[in-house]
Design brief:
Layout lengths: L10 H31 L6 H9 L1 H21 L2 H6 L1 H26 L5 H23 L3 H20 L7 H5 L3 H23 L1 H5 L4
Bound molecules: protoporphyrin IX containing FE.
């Protein structure tokens, strides 16, 4: 397969690529759910101090988690071509649910980080989440479907940073670096890096094919 077709292959290969991608994202989410969230609930010793913080933050964390989980699931469903083609009205309703969930998740995320070293990073992440999602909503309303799709990819990539930023949690060195310095700059770098990878993916064909 030519390198230009690796990320966005034509026709039949495209659906195989989407299947592999979504299976990988699903398995990664499952891995993170077990190694981060389930272990947090069962009071895994390494997470103990953070667990106490999570319990103290529960009033904000409940709407935050609900918003985030709904965005994670609704966002994934929005990429289904079959669902879009067969149930356009449902796609539009779910799109609004996604937008509202992102706003709830982002605003409560900033409130959670208020007064902590992670505030600049979280604010940047929340801003990226809101800007990409709002752009996806506006382009959908204006029937700019190609741009709508691209902004949804960017928006969902920010949604998915919840998963990707926790993949290494079980590695003590990574976890112990989640101190003040990491919190201050790590999230900004992570969000920018994520969006950079998405841009490479979205532009892969143009980057790797020579115009005739
Ligand atoms: C799929 C999207 C998201 C979900 C499902 C989600 C869910 C959660 C959960 C369950 C926690 C507590 C346990 C843990 O840290 O693993 C948490 C913590 C936190 N989340 Fe999110 N989140 C999402 C995205 C975001 C985003 C994009 C931001 C930034 C705006 C954010 C900001 C925060 C902050 C600051 C905390 C720390 C709370 C504390 O200090 O107690 N989250 N999130």
């Amino acid at each position: 397969m030519a390198s230009s077709t690796l990320l966005f292959p034509p026709s039949s290969d495209r659906s195989r690529f989407k299947t592999v991608l979504w299976i990988s994202l699903g398995l990664t989410s499952l891995f993170v759910f077990i190694t981060s969230e389930a272990l947090l609930v069962t009071d895994y010793p390494m997470y103990h101090a953070y667990r106490l913080q999570v319990i103290a933050d529960r009033l904000l964390l409940i709407p935050h988690t609900l918003g985030g989980v709904i965005a994670l699931l609704a966002g994934a469903m929005q990429f289904s071509s079959r669902l879009r083609e067969r149930h356009l009205k449902f796609h539009r309703i779910l799109g609004r649910v996604y937008v509202i969930s992102v706003f709830i998740g982002a605003l409560t995320g900033v409130a959670l980080a208020a007064g902590r070293p992670g505030l600049p990073g979280t604010s940047m992440q929340a801003a990226a989440w809101i800007v990409c999602t709002t752009a996806a909503f506006i382009t959908a309303r204006n029937r700019q479907i190609a741009q709508h799709r691209q902004w949804m990819v960017r928006s969902y990539a920010v949604t998915f940073t919840f998963v990707t930023s926790r993949v290494l949690n079980l590695w003590p060195l990574y976890w112990s670096h989640l101190g003040d310095t990491f919190a201050a700059v790590g999230l900004i770098a992570f969000t920018l890096g994520t969006l950079l990878v998405v841009e490479l993916g979205l532009n892969w064909r143009k980057l790797t094919t020579h115009r005739a």
